[in-house]
Amino acid sequence: MNAHLAPGSFTGTSPAWLDVPDDVNALVPRLWSQTARKDAGVLHIGGLAIPDLVASVNTPTYVLDEDDFRARARAFKEAFGDRHGYDVYYAGKAFLCTELARWVQQEGLCLDVCSNGELTVALRAGVEPERIGYHGNNKTLTELRRAIVEGVGRIIVDSFDEVDRVIAVAGETGLPARVMVRVTAGVEAHTHEYIATAHEDQKFGLSISSNDAFEAVRRLAAAPGVDLRGLHSHIGSQIFDSAGFEVAARRVLALHARVRDELGVELPELDLGGGFGIAYTTQDDPSSPSALAEDLTAIVEHECRALDLAVPHLSIEPGRAIVGPSMCTVYTVGTVKEVALDGGVSRTYVSVDGGMSDNIRTALYDADYSATLAGRASDAAPVLGRVVGKHCEAGDIVVKHEFLPGDIHPGDLLAVPGTGAYCRSMASNYNHALRPPVVAVKDGQPRVLVRRETEDDLLATDLG
Asked: Is the same domain home to 157 and 293?
C-alpha cells in the first residue's frame, strides 16, 4: 500500500474537493444519519454496532435509521406544513415498503406514487387515498381507473393522451377525477442531465411556452366529472438552492393568472415540486428545510402579489432529502488491489460483495459517494481508494474517489452513506445477484423491513 501522500500528490487522480483526512476513521456528520457514530472505530447506527448487525443479517445490507427518517420527515412537515400550510409529499420512488409507508402517514406526510405497484404498497400500508398523489408520464386506462375508483387525492396529468383517458374514466365511473396538470417551465436546473426535468426537451409534462399546458387546462376545466386542482411543476432532483424555483414559480403562476383571466377559473393549488439535494460527499452543502420553506414561500407570495393572485394552496416534494441520508449500505471487502497511475502514484481498488446491482447510481448518473471502514479502527495512513463491485462490468463502481485506511483488507466491513434514495428502488438481479435486505434500526434493535432475496425467489419466475 502507498504511504501517506500530501493532497497535491493526487492532482489529476482525485477531485479537488477530496482532501486527505486528518483522521481516516472519523465520520463527516452531514453525510450520515443522525444517530451514526463511531466507538473505537466501530460504526454504530441507531444504537447498534454494525458488526453485530452483520453477524445476524450478513452483507450487503441496507441499514435504515428509523429515528433519522422520522426526524427528517418531521422537519419538512414542521417547516413547510405547520408554518406555511403546505402539503408535503414523500417520494415513494426513492424507497418504499409497507412499514415505511406507515411511517410516512404517522408523521403527517402525503405520499407520491408513480406505478400500480407503488399504489398497492401504499394502500396495503393503510395510507389514506386522499393523501396519495399519482405521478407518471404513461398511465394506462387500467391504472387511471384504479386510481379514480380508490379515491386517490390527485392524479398528475402528463400528456393530452392522459387528458383524454382521465375524462373517459371519469365519465365511465361517475366518480370524480381529481387532477393536476404537470407543466414544464423551461428551467435548466443545475443537476445531472437525466434528473433535470423542467427544460423543454424531455419526457415529462406539458410546455407552458408552446401553449400545450394551457390547452390541457382548458380541456380538463370544461370536462364533466373532472376536479381540476391546479398545476404541478418540478425542475429536477438534487437541487441545492432556490434560484430555479424562482424562475419556475414566475412562469407557472403567470399561467395561473392566464387561466383566471381567459377561462374564468381560479386554480386552487400549486405544487412546486422539490427534489432537494443531500450531502453525498464533502462538496455538497444542502439547505435546511426551514430555509427552503422560507425562500420558496417568499418567492410564491412575491409573484402572486405581482399578478394580483390569491396565494394557492401549496405542496412540495422533498424527494431524496427525507430518506436519502437515513440509510447506509454495508459491504464486506473481498479483494484489494493496488493499481499504478501516471505520476508515480497509485489507486487502491477495494472490491466489495455488492455493486451496481444494489447501487446503480454511480454508473447511471456518475454519482459521487463516500465510504468509511465500519468494523474497526485503523492506525494506517490513508490511501486513495476506489470502491468497486463484484459484477462483470468495468463501470461497476460504488465510490469513485475516497481516502481509505492503507491497511484495508479482505473481510473488513465498509459502509457507504446516503444510499436511502433510489438504491434499493433501482436494485436489480444483474449477474443473478440477490437483492439485499432493508433493516431498520432503533434503540439498539434491528428489524427486517424487506428480507434478503433467496435463490428460490430468483427462480420463482423462471419457468424453464
From this structure: yes
